[in-house]
Amino acid sequence: MHIFISTGEISGSNRASSLIKELRKKNSKIKISGIGTSEMADAGCEIWADISHTASVGYFEQLIQKIPVRILIKKIKKRVIREKPDLIILIDSPGFNIKLAKEVSSLGIKTIYYIPPQDFLWNRTGNAQKIIKHCDMVINIFGKGYEAYKKLGAKCHFVGHPILDTVKTGFDEVKIMKELKIKKNKKIVGLFLGNRRQEIKKIAPVILKGAEELSKQIKGIHYVAPIASAHFKKTIKKIIEKHELNINIIDGKDSLKLMSIADMIITKAGTTTLEAGILKCPMIVAYRLNPITYFIATRIIRIQDKIKFISLPNLYTNTEIIPELIQHDLTPENIAEHATRILKNSDKIIKQLGNLRKQMGKPGASRRAAEKILDFVKNN
To answer: What predicted TM-score, i.e. pTM, was given to this entire model?
Structure first.
């Protein structure tokens, strides 16, 4: 059996690597190929293309990436025709994977969409309709998403959130501080500067300036910055060097360890917020789009009328647990103000985050997804 898996960014690749491990536990003879990152390769996947440097956010940003993405999709289709996998699994990244689903739907290969877009949060069904048209089954990690797809007539399943398989509690704080070379008796602040080119360009400088302002308010803070992608390591280091900060740079694979001991983190939106939430690590979420994208989203689509929050902990609980600094509100002064407040008293946020994990179901989502996938293959 040959399974092809497509992801479009680092978080999707992480979810894919967990799924691959579970599939191999159940059938060690499965051949798995795909597009993703080194995480998938480490799990036993033959990587056809590393796409960690192509991920984008927003309408204008996607327009810039449109040509290389189209070329990649054409290349992937040609190889799928040549290799003839028995099953295609698309994971997250709707901007890329829905286009790929449409392109390969005529080939007669069964296709499953795992972790579909969360359009249900703002009552939009466009992407869901496309997924239902081009895919044979949908596997949801959100209960509300499952209900939304079921209502639209999709063959779908709910497995819970796979992040509970990878985010473990009970870290050895002393051991981690030694591993990451973090000094004792200092406030620890994690700086998550982005996984995508556009995020790094728009968000990293303002987060770093915010850290500079914060250091004026609270002395002796130990800053730690995980870098998730090797593609952007040099870029991020150059940005950091422009600021008067002593920052300990660590491998992105140690992000969870950092969150388990940090007093707080300042991060871009995305999966990182959910990981930090599960570990009850207070945070500030920084989010900035291209002005054209922001104008379309707020003035034309009026997304703010349909969705209250952008961070997953706030969305999950429908409560503003953590501060979100979006677009014009994302300033160094606002970062420093909120961070100072959190570092002086984080009890309320920690208590609220403690309720988040209870709402996410039980561990084992990747195993359950693998079971649903293999059952589908067996019966189709």
So the answer is: 0.76
